[in-house]
Structure formats: structure tokens, C-alpha cells
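I am writing to request your help with a piece of structural work I have in hand. Here, with my thanks, is the record as I have it:
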Amino acid sequence: MDWLRELLKQAGWEDAKIDAFIGDVNKELPKHFVPKSQYNELSETRKKLEKDVADRDKQIDDLGKTAGLSEDLKQQIETLKTENQTAKTQYESDLKEVKISNAITAALTGKVHNEKVVTGLIDKTKLVLGDDGKIVGLDEQLTGLKTSDAYLFKPEEGQGQQQQQQPGIKVGAGKTEPPAGGQLSLGDAIAAHFTK
């Protein structure tokens, strides 16, 4: 985190503020990011697994060519090919699902009260994963949810900070005339009722 400390110093932050901020970042960072070493390890493992699958498919094809007339062996090879294709399709489907889930989580982080609830309201079948890795259709669904279920979302900076006063009786208000919002104290409301 030395790089972050230097950036904050250049921005004019005091050392005490920097230490507190970096402490908070160190607590939150593992919840949202994978360490670079772990990412590199998983990336290398993925590359190796993909190479192993390609090698296995090649071996099966080679075996099929050299098998000769053995019908039983040819049937086993065809079964393996089918299973490999099914596994590949499932892997691609699972990878797409993970990418969509990660994009949803990234879009909701810090903006909603409960990510699980909002994620459950998003129709993943209407989302399309583009070639560039971006999710098409997510912003439209989030905009719709903000309109229909605004209580699920945290107020944005500057919005929702002041609660609107509701008209009616306000217990403990000491004014005898109703204010602009139409609120009376309980005592004034009772007195007004009996003086009619």
C-alpha cells in the first residue's frame, strides 16, 4: 500500500488521515478483490487445464484413427467426445454466469441496502454478455428497479438527506397556527376540535 500512501501524500492528506484510511482499505479490500498472486495462480491453472483438455481431445481423435475396426472402442470414443463437448458447453455456461454475477455485484456494491435481494430481482435471462465483457441490459433493469423499488437503494450523495415533512398532527409541536406543512401540536389539535 506504499503506492496509495504516496498518492494520498501528494493529494495533501495528513499522515494520521492516511493511516486511518489505509487501515480501512486493508479491512475492506479482501472482501472485494483477489490478491494478484492468487489471480495469477488461477489464471495459470486455467491455461493449463485448457491445454490439458485440448491435449486429451487430440489423444481421443488419434486413438479413434488407430482403433481400426473395433466397434466397441469406436463407441467408447464417441461417448468420450460427447462427454467432452458437454463438459465444454457447461464450462462456458458457468463462466458466463460467473461473469454476469460479478458484473451485477460490481454494479450494486455500495448502492443498495441488500445486494442479495436486488440481485434476485434482476432477470439474468434478459442480460447479454458482450464480446468486450460488458453486460447489456443491466443498467435498464437497475433503472426500472430504482423507479419501482426505490427503498432498496441507498440515497445518492445529496439526495434523500432531508426527510420531507408529512402533513398531519405532530406530537409536541408548540405552535398554535398550522405551519406551512400543515402540522399542529396534539394539544392545539384537541383544543381546536373542542372549540368548534
Remarks:
- The longest helix spans residues 71-108.
